[in-house]
Amino acid sequence: MNRLIVISNRVSAPKGQSGAQGGLAVAFQAALREYRGIWFGWSGEQTDEFTGQINFQRSEGVTTATIDLEEQDIDEYYNGYANRTLWPLFHYRIDLAEFERGFADGYQRVNERFADTIRPLIEPADVVWVQDYHMIPLGAELRKRGCRNRMGFFLHIPWPPRRLLSSLPRAIELVATMFAYDVVGFHTEEWLEAFRDFAVHEMGATLAEDGTIHLGERQVRAIACPIGIDTREFVEAAASPAARLTYRRMRDSADGRDMIVGVDRLDYSKGLEERFNGYERFLIDHPEQRKEVFLLQIAPPSRGDVETYQRIRLQLEGLSGRINGAYADIDWVPIRYVNQGFPRHVLAGIYRAARIGLVTPLRDGMNLVAKEYVAAQDPEDPGVLILSRFAGAALQMSEAVLVNPYSAEEMSDAIVTALGMPKEERIRRWRALMDVVEREDVLWWRRRFTDVLLGEDVAAEAESGPVQAG
User: Fold this and answer.
1) If 110 and its partner were Cys, which of 77, 181, 353, 366 is the partner (CB 3.0–4.6 Å)?
2) Could you say which of 132, 230, 267, 364 is catalytic?
3) 3-class DSSP state of 239
4) Using one digit for the tens of pLDDT, what is the confidence trace for 398-442?
C-alpha cells in the first residue's frame, strides 16, 4: 500500500495535547501518520459557489484536505438527506424520516462533487477508506471515475431491518452502491445480518461460504468490527490535574450526595425524554432516597437547523423544569440540566465523580460514552454503568446493568440496584468491562478493519484460526 486515504463528512485536524479530539480522530491520525495518508472531507464552511478548491493543511505528520460546500448542498445533503432521512430511518424512527426528492438529489450531487474533487489525489497504490452514512454512494462514484483501488466503507450508526429500510425510496439503488467497496464494516453482528438479509431477499444477492456477498459481477466482504475509544489516552486524561480539579469540584457540589451522570448529544435517538421519565419514576417510588442523589445531564445541542432537534430541546427543557418544580427542595434539585459541551479532561473528571453512568439510548450504533465512563473510573472504588440493551456497546459490555430504556420501571429498578451495589461487585463488574475497553480500543478497531481491507487477516486466520469480530 502506498497511502491510506480517509474520506468523511467532516475532518478533524490534529490539536496537539488539548485532549479535545475524539478517539476516532486519534485512530485516523495514527493510521495517516503510519501510511503517509490524507484525510479528506467537508470543512464545515459555506461558500457562495462550489469550485472544488481544496484547502491542504499539514500538522503533526497528518495531511488534511477540505472543501467548502454551497448553502443548497448543506441544506439538501447534510441537513436534508443525511440527517432528516437516513439518520432517523437508520435509528428506527421512520415516523421522523422525511422523504423528499430534493434531499436525495442533493445527497447524490455532493457525493459526486466529493468524487470529482478527491479522484485526482488518489494514486494507483492507495487504499481508500470511506466513513459513515453521509458517503454511502461515494465508492460507486469513484469507480465510475476509473478508481480501481482497494476501497472500504464503515457505517458508524445502526443498519435497519429489511422491512424498515424498504420504506426508503430507491433503497435498492442506494444499497447497490455499497457493492462498489471491497469491504464494508458494521459495529455489530445484528447490523451485519440486517445488511445481508436486505441484499439477499430484496436484491437477489448470494452468500459464499467465506461470507462474501455477491451481486452480479461485484462482491463485497462484510464484517462486524465494534469501535472503541483511545483507552490509554482517556485513562491519562482522568488522572490529569484538570480532571482531578473537576472531580473535586463535582464532589464538593454534590455535598455528600451520589451523582448520576448522563452525557449525550441532544438527539432523539439518545432516549433523553425516556431517561428523565425513568429517573422521575425512581423519585416517585423511592422518596426516602430522593435527596441522596441527583442527575447531571449534559446535552450539548446539535443540528439546530433541523426542526426535530429544536423540538426535542424544548421538550427536555419543559420536562426537566416540571420534574424540578415538582420534587426540588430549598437545598436540592433532582436534575441539573446543562446544554453545553465540555473538554475531554473535564468530562473524565465528571465521570469519575459519578456513582452511576446512565447511558440509555433508544438505538445507538455503539455509544462511546459508556466506554469513556468505564475508563475514567477509580479502580479501587468504581461507579456503576447502567446501559441500554439497544446500544451497540451492550454486546461487549454485558457486565453493565442492562436496561430497556422504554421502561420507566426498569430504569428506576436499575438505579436502585446500582446505588445499593456492594463495592466488591462494583469492582468485579468494572474489571470485566475495563478488560473489554482496553482490549478492543479504537486502534484495535482501525487495525482490524484495515487488515481485512488489505487482505492481511487471511494469513492471520490461517495461522491462528478465524479473527473474532468482537
Assistant:
1) 77
2) 364
3) coil
4) 999 999 999 999 999 999 999 999 999 999 999 999 999 999 999
pLDDT at 460: 46
The strand pairing partners of 219, in sequence order, are 214
Per-residue confidence band for 465, with pLDDT thresholds at 50, 70 and 90: very low
- With respect to CATH, is domain 4-228+443-462 assigned 1.10.3120.10? no
Which of 75, 105, 116, 156 is catalytic? The answer is: 156
Task: Name 265's Cβ contacts closer than 8 Å, sequence gap at least 6.
Answer: 299, 300, 302
Give the mean model confidence (pLDDT) for residues 308-321: 90
- Under a CB-based contact definition with an 8 Å cutoff, are residues 91 and 68 in contact? no
Mean predicted confidence (pLDDT) in 211-223: 95
pLDDT of residue 210: 84
The residues with which 293 forms a beta bridge, in sequence order, are 258
Q: For residues 179 and 176, give the distance between their C-alpha atoms in angstroms, rounded to a whole number.
A: 6
Question: How does 286-314 read in b/e, with b if 16+ C-beta sit within 10 Å?
Answer: eeeebeebbbbbbbeeebeebebbeebbe
pLDDT of 21 reads 53
Q: CB–CB of 154/129 below 8 Å? A: yes
DSSP states of 443-454 as a string? HHHHHHHHHHHH
Say whether domain 231-439 belongs to CATH 3.40.50.2000.
Answer: yes
Closest CA to 264 of 234, 298, 315: 298
Q: How many CB atoms lie within 10 A of CB 12?
A: 18
Condensed to tens digits (0 to 9), the pLDDT of residues 439-449 reads 999 999 999 99
Element (H, E) at 212: strand 212-215
364 annotated active-site: yes
At 3, the amino acid letter reads: R
pLDDT for residue 458 is more than 70:
no
Q: Within the chain, which residue ranges are assigned CATH 3.40.50.2000?
A: 4-228+443-462, 231-439
